[in-house]
Specification:
By secondary structure, this protein is of the alpha/beta class. The protein is built from 4 helices and 10 strands. The chain has one domain: Leucine-rich repeat, LRR (right-handed beta-alpha superhelix), CATH 3.80.10. Helix 2 (about 135-140) crosses helix 4. It is elongated.
Length: about 230
C-alpha cells in the first residue's frame, strides 16, 4: 500500500484509462483505478503496466483473456468488487509473471481450478461466499494461497449443513474429502453406462442368434420340400 501511495505522486505520460491514475516509479508502471464505479475491466490499460489496482469497484465478472495483453503484470488487486464469475482462461497470458492476485471480499461461490492452479501468484480468496466443493479443495491444496488469509476461506454453503460457517481448512483437517464424493458419483455413472452397453450387446447377440435360427429353419423346410415336389412332378 505504501508503494502504491508513492506511485501516485509520479505520473507518466502514456495513455491512461478514463477515471484511472497512471504513475511510474523506478521504471515500474502502475494503473490505479480504485473506487471508480467500474462495472468491467477497462479495455485500454497500457500494455507495459506492472501494478494494476481495480479494487472497490462494481466488477462482476473476469472473462477469458481479460489480461492477456498485459504481459508485464506482477500484481492485480480485484478485492472489494462484486465478482461472481471467473472464466477458466481469465488469467491466461499473465500466469508466469504474476506475483500477487487479490480476489478477497467479492461474491465468488465457485471457481474453475484451471483459472488459478496454473498461477505462480500469491492468492487472496478470503471473505467470499464459497460453496465448499472439490474444485475449491483442489485450489486450496494446489495453488499458492496467502497464508494470512487462508483461515478466512469459509464455507458459506456445503453438501452437509454441519460444514456451513466453518473455515474450509478446518473442515478438511477433520478428514472431509469433497473430491471423494465426486469420484464415487463418477464411478457410479461409469458403472451404469458400462452396464447399459453390456445389456445392449447381449440383446444384439440374442437377436442375431434368433434371426439366424429362423433363417436356418426356413432353409431346412425348403430343402425338405424339394423331394416331395419332384415326386409330385413325376
Amino acid at each position: 500500500q505504501a508503494f502504491f501511495c508513492l506511485l501516485l505522486c509520479i505520473p507518466w505520460g502514456s495513455s491512461c484509462p478514463p477515471s484511472c491514475q497512471c504513475t511510474e516509479r523506478a521504471g515500474a508502471k502502475a494503473v490505479l483505478c480504485s473506487s471508480q464505479h467500474l462495472e468491467e475491466i477497462p479495455k485500454d490499460i497500457p500494455r507495459d503496466v506492472v501494478f494494476l489496482k481495480l479494487d472497490a469497484n462494481s466488477i462482476t465478472r473476469i472473462p477469458n483473456n481479460a489480461f492477456r495483453h498485459l504481459s508485464h503484470l506482477e500484481e492485480i488487486d480485484l478485492s472489494r468488487n462484486a465478482i461472481e464469475k471467473i472464466d477458466r482462461a481469465a488469467f491466461k497470458g499473465v500466469a508466469a509473471g504474476l506475483r500477487s492476485l487479490d480476489l478477497s471480499s467479492n461474491r465468488i461461490r465457485s471457481i474453475p481450478k484451471e483459472a488459478l492452479v496454473a498461477l505462480n501468484a500469491k492468492l487472496r480468496l478470503a471473505n467470499n461466499p464459497w460453496h465448499c466443493e472439490c474444485a475449491l479443495q483442489e485450489v486450496l491444496w494446489e495453488a499458492r494461497l496467502d497464508l494470512d488469509s487462508v483461515q478466512d476461506i469459509t464455507c458459506h454453503t456445503a453438501p452437509r449443513e454441519e460444514y456451513v460457517g466453518k473455515p474450509l481448512l478446518q473442515v478438511l483437517d477433520a478428514g472431509v474429502n469433497f473430491c471423494s464424493v465426486r469420484q464415487r458419483t463418477t464411478d457410479v455413472a461409469m458403472f451404469v453406462t458400462m452396464f447399459g452397453w453390456f445389456a445392449m450387446l447381449i440383446a444384439y447377440v440374442i437377436c442375431y442368434v434368433r434371426h439366424n435360427r429362423e433363417d436356418s429353419c426356413r432353409h431346412g423346410d425348403y430343402l425338405r420340400s424339394l423331394p416331395s415336389a419332384q415326386a409330385h412332378a413325376e
